[in-house]
Design goal:
With about 140 residues, the protein is mainly alpha-helical. It has one domain. It has three helices and no strands. The chain has helices at about 5-70, 75-120, 125-140. The longest helix is centred in the N-terminal third of the chain and has 66 residues, at about 5-70. The chain is rod-shaped.
Length: about 140
């Protein structure tokens, strides 16, 4: 019976080390996911700022053209301005939707990784090692160790 306890203890130690390594892996994956998410958000903010700048320039250019042609700020010119603004807003909405989808995929991958690690921790080999350790402690007197 003395040989079972060291073997079980080594198995449990190995399982513990594997769990610690997996915990480190999960922490690294979480940090990487946060970094990718932040990068997506920053890129989205930069793109939106560039679209606003392009819209402002396009509106100024169009106003100058209308002014050069003697067209006032009436119905037709307002429709053109509204169309340019709507186009820019649609691009922003599309960009936000794409960023949201990409962030969702990152979150889903991270959640799957966490779930997979929990499933691996409960695999039969790990349960057997813990079971052997429990049996060993119940059956072996502590003075013998």
């Amino acid at each position: 019976m003395g040989g079972v306890l060291p073997t079980a203890a080594m198995s449990v130690l190995q399982v513990g080390l594997e769990a610690a390594q997996k915990g480190n892996q999960v922490a690294a994956q979480e940090a990487a996911a946060r970094g990718r998410t932040e990068q997506i958000r920053q890129t989205q903010q930069i793109d939106e700022r560039q679209r606003r700048d392009r819209l402002r320039r396009a509106l100024a250019t169009q106003r100058a053209r209308f002014g050069a042609q003697g067209i006032g700020t009436g119905g037709s010119s307002r429709a053109v301005f509204a169309g340019l603004a709507a186009e820019a807003e649609q691009e922003n909405a599309d960009s936000r939707a794409l960023a949201s989808t990409r962030i969702g995929q990152i979150d889903d991958q991270l959640a799957w990784s966490r779930k997979r690690n929990l499933l691996e921790a409960s695999r039969p080999g790990n349960r057997m090692a813990f079971g052997l350790l429990q049996k060993g402690f119940r059956n072996v007197p502590l003075l013998e160790i």
